[in-house]
Write a structure and sequence with these properties.
Rossmann fold; globular; alpha/beta; about 270 residues; about 20% strand; single chain; about 40% helix
Length: about 270
């Protein structure tokens, strides 16, 4: 079953979202202190600065990841769409888990591997290039999986959850953050992730709305746009244009969006 066959499922995301876009983000852009300074300004005390996470990850989100995943020392955690690895590495350190990060951006994977030693011993983390719906991991090899703000990038969202159902051991949990939207004008809006999750073979255990998700994200976009000259000078036009595009395209739609955190489980 694909997206188009599930009630509430949607068409693929914008075609211009590519691995190359994320290579710029995880490479040139992420190496600038500008981005993390602006994130601190937007999120304030809720921002876990050490992670340098691209997603809208807060201390609240990290706490829910810990409680939802229920993973312990020596177990295998998968960080799906890991980017530069901040979320997965923090969780591996906090829980004692063995981490595998998967991302479609080679630059993100390289940066995650380079940062790993800041969080855990070298043997506790590995990172591979792979797709949201085709990780390359062995069946039933993971005790838990997490994905921060990325499942919506998949061309076939159902396939993401089917891949998690394949990779997770029976009873293991997959916790992810995303947004839901009631905007009838947006062909890429997901009004409800539950039917997509279940079509992929997982069970929804809980859905929570992320506190201040809309306000904090708008604050970050406003900060980017207010400092665009500094961003152009520090990052270059191409990377700055990526940020402007996101802020100007997504910002006006936030009134229709709700940030959500789902805890799901393999049967």
């Amino acid at each position: 079953m694909t997206d188009s066959q599930v009630r509430g499922a949607v068409v693929p995301p914008r075609a211009e979202i590519t691995p190359e876009t994320f290579d710029r983000a995880h490479g040139t852009t992420a190496k600038s202190e500008l981005m993390w300074r602006m994130a601190r300004e937007a999120y304030g005390a809720d921002y876990p600065e050490e992670l340098q996470a691209w997603g809208m990850t807060t201390w609240w989100t990290l706490g829910r990841f810990i409680s939802g995943l229920r993973i312990s020392t020596g177990q295998h955690l998968v960080d799906l769409a890991c980017g530069r690895g901040g979320v997965g590495l923090w969780l591996a350190r906090a829980t004692g888990a063995q981490l595998t990060g998967v991302d479609w951006s080679p630059a993100g994977v390289r940066e995650a591997a380079a940062r790993a030693g800041e969080f855990v011993p070298a043997h506790r983390a590995s990172f591979i290039v792979g797709d949201l719906a085709a990780t390359g991991l062995a069946p039933a090899s993971a005790d838990a999986a997490v994905c921060a703000d990325a499942v919506f990038f998949a061309l076939d969202r159902v396939a993401v959850f089917a891949e998690m159902a394949r990779v997770l051991r029976p009873g293991a949990r997959f916790v992810f953050t995303a947004d839901e939207s009631d905007d009838p004008a947006s062909p890429a809006a997901v009004p409800d992730w539950e039917p997509i999750v279940e079509a992929g073979g997982l069970v929804v255990e809980s859905r929570e709305e992320i506190p201040r998700w809309r306000e904090d994200l708008q604050g970050m976009y406003d900060t980017w746009l207010a400092n665009i000259s500094e961003l152009r000078q520090g990052l270059g036009d191409e990377s700055a244009d990526d940020l402007v595009q996101e802020a100007t395209l997504v910002g006006p739609t936030l009134a229709h969006r709700t940030g959500v955190l789902y805890t799901t489980r393999r049967r």
